[in-house]
Every structure is written in structure tokens, then in C-alpha cells.
Amino acid sequence: MLATNKISRGDMSGSLNRQRFVDAALDVIADVGVDKLSMRRVASQLGVSAMAMYKHFANKDELLGAAFEEFIARAEVLPDDQLPWDEWLIVSARGMYQALCSEMSWVPWLGKLRLGGNALRVTERFAAKLAESGLATDASVRVYMATIQLVVGAVCMRASLHAGHWQQGEAAAAMPEALSPEIFTGLANAVAQEPIDISLPLLIEGVRHQLLA
Predict the structure, then answer these.
(1) Whether residue 104 is found in the same domain as residue 21
(2) In angstroms, rounded to a whole number, what is the distance separating the alpha carbons of residues 145 and 179?
(3) Could you tell me if 39 and 50 are in contact, meaning their C-beta atoms sit under 8 angstroms apart?
(4) Which CATH number belongs to the domain containing residue 103 in this structure?
(5) Where are the alpha helices (DSSP H) in the chain?
(6) What is the pTM of this model?
(7) pLDDT (tens digit, 9 = 90+) per residue, 136-192?
């Protein structure tokens, strides 16, 4: 679960430094989503004018990048280094999944944001952990990219399944009657699981296969 540092309007002691604006930006995102983040909304959250923010951020994109960096830091997606590679990967992927599920409005922005220090640190440590297990660097990077794609896909699937009739337990009724009973049952069981629980074990098995090759 993500840590939160919700700022109240009454908590205005001390200077309005860069971190306070970043914290306020995350509060705004939690309330209205990434798409509706604006310098004006963040300033209003802190009870100041938007001009006060330009001392720390040149524009909205810079603020958004800083907010995403803080989002990553709070997610704590780097597990204990003492864990075996497979447990480490599982904990890391689940951390990413839970973080993005907590604020899905980040998902459409993932390919647009400039990567900062925290994002790069996660990338480097992830690839290094897999390399320590015996994978070549190129293969380690590919597994990292596959994990990101898996996590984002699982988050999107979760958003879809939790909308409309899926949320109300009517998944079976929505499936085509032409399916064989075995496939029908398999799909119904899969829909009942968290999407990450379906795909992550398959990724782990694929990496194990590479290590044994």
C-alpha cells in the first residue's frame, strides 16, 4: 500500500518548498486523476497563487515528472536484496501492480513521462538482480520490460473486469454460449482471479527455463 502525506490547508507552517508542492500534486491526482492535474489546482490545494510554483517548476510537465518520481518512491517496489531472484521478481511486480491499481490514472502517461532518478534506479536494480541469477544483461533487460508490460496489462485488465457487470459477479453470464464447457469454466475461474496472479507465474517459469537452457 502506498504511503500518503495528505496536506491540509491548515498545515501551512514552514516554507512552501518543492516537496510540499509535489505532495500536494499527489493529493490532487488522488482526488481528480493525472489528466486533470494543473498548476492552478495544486496551488489552490496549498492556498497560494499558481505563480508561487514557478520558482520550483518550469511547467506542468516538470511538476508531473516530480510527482511520478515521488509516486515511485512511495510504492517501494524494490524488495530485500537477500531474496532469491524469483521471489524478488514476484514481490517487485506485485508492488508495481498494487501501486498502479491504487492510482490507475498514471497508466496512460507511463510512456510519456521522462524517467527520473527513482525510475532509473528501479530499472537498474531489477536488471542487476536478474543478472546475478545468471541471465545475460540483454536477457535481464528483456525480462524487466516483459514485467513492466505484464504489470500494465494486468492493471488495465483489472480496470476492465471491475467495470460494469464484471464487478457484479455476472462474468459467466457475459461469456459466449458457444464455448466448450471446459473453456467456459476456465475463463470463469480466470476472471475470478487477480490478473497479475494469472500472468506472473508464467513469466517466472519462462525465466527459469532460460536459466536452465
Answers:
(1) no
(2) 33
(3) yes
(4) 1.10.357.10
(5) 18-32, 39-46, 60-75, 85-102, 117-132, 137-161, 171-174, 181-191, 195-212
(6) 0.82
(7) 999 999 999 999 999 999 999 888 876 654 544 455 555 556 678 788 777 777 777
